[in-house]
Amino acid sequence: AGGGRAGPRACGVHNVCRLLSRRAHGFYARDAGVAHRKNLGLLRKIMCQESTKFKNVWTTHSASPIAYERGRIYMDNYQCCISSIAQEPRILYQKSKCAKSEKIEDALLLECPLGEMLPSPSDYKASLIVLTVQNWLLRLSADSGEVLEKVYLAGSCCKFFRYLSWDTPQEVMIVKSAQNKLPAAARQAGIQQTVLFYLAVFQVLPLSFIGMLEINKKIFGNSVTDVAVSNGILIVMYSMGLVRLYNFKAILEQFMEQPFDLGQEFNWNGQVGVVGKYPFGLPCNIKITDTPPLLFEASSLENAFQIGGYPWHYIITPNKKKHKGVFHICSLKDNALAKNGIQDMKCCSLEPDWIYFHPDMSGRIIHVGPNLIKVLKLKEVKNHADQMEIAEDFTIVANRENCVNNAVTVTASGRVVKKRFTSLDDDPEQETFKIVDYEDELDLLSTVAVTQIGADGRAHLDFHCNEHGILLKSIPLKESWDVTYSHEVYFDKDLVLHIEQKPNRRFSCYVYQMVCDTARDDD
Hints:
By secondary structure, the protein is mostly beta strands.
């Protein structure tokens, strides 16, 4: 310390930002992520080349919903799993048709965490957590469908668990019941139902039970319509558009009566059984006896409320129907409206525009209208460091060059004709944005734009530079696109998958894979 020779790292880079930047550019060859980042960079360049095409390699139809998760297509209520990674999709497993009592209500894909020691070899492979109609929580092998673990959820307290979601992705899972409703006869008899929802909380890999709690009218109020948990926050929604936020972790710690482990024998409120086994299920061991401290509340039309950006901001729509399509971006710290924080595209359309924080964690905001996508950013107001403003980062505009929509036209004979109506902004005969998504591994913003003339609709999937919005690639979808149907489009590295739901529960799936068009193949 007193003038000795500097160590070998003294002449190196010590600034954290520079270290991260150099690592991202591949300066450290022994970094485990360097090769992966280089490969994804190469894939992006190859994919965006003009000679690279996306070919429709497989199409299937089904009378039951079709789901997609990380290279796997699930059909027949998750009884059939098809790998979409191979050159042509192939069946990974096919189970016999299940009884109605074994129907799967919801599912989540579970992937192995990095750098952790797990108790079972099967934990290191991807698995699927499913919730059945009879309140069983099953963990299935994603490759074989084998049941790895099973937990019975519903004891005497609740019979209708229906929804799976992440509190912390790939770490903490929430199982939510349907809203409890008394039969009409019970209501007529004057019986009161105070418990609205049950939430069961699990740590995953290894699967462990944290606790179960009830959402009660006596604690949260009579007008509760729904609840959700996300990133350690309990979100309670009310019929009048009010949204209230509570610290979920603090609730678990404060109101936990007794912890339980799966497989543990218990004697609880006069019941004797095994935690997670039939017929006892899980004990309701978190009893909220008093209203928890309120973190934040806001009033928004249809309970629409989002938090994001840096510093933290939230997006709401003023709670009046006349304000539908108007979005206010405000500071979470003091509720101050950001400069230029009122975003209104003034769309005249059947389907409303939508807005959300960019999933790339950049703090930007994506606002999507029928013919315009605006990517917005938060920045400090000049000479006012404590005030933020909304600025436009870039825009993507639909191709409507050939569209002429004059209110007044003149015929060849010179007669003036006035239109009695104006076309909608999302008129099917004009190119309209339907889907906007983000591919995080390739850092690409993808958009689906559709034009429908008569019964024939044509769609194309475009890839844009996520940083500047520049169009890099356009892929025409071969199948006809009916704007009245429900559609999902997944872009996953070198794969594009389109799922379509037609009337009368008819489903179709179209798979496209990247091919380097070196010769004669026009597909």
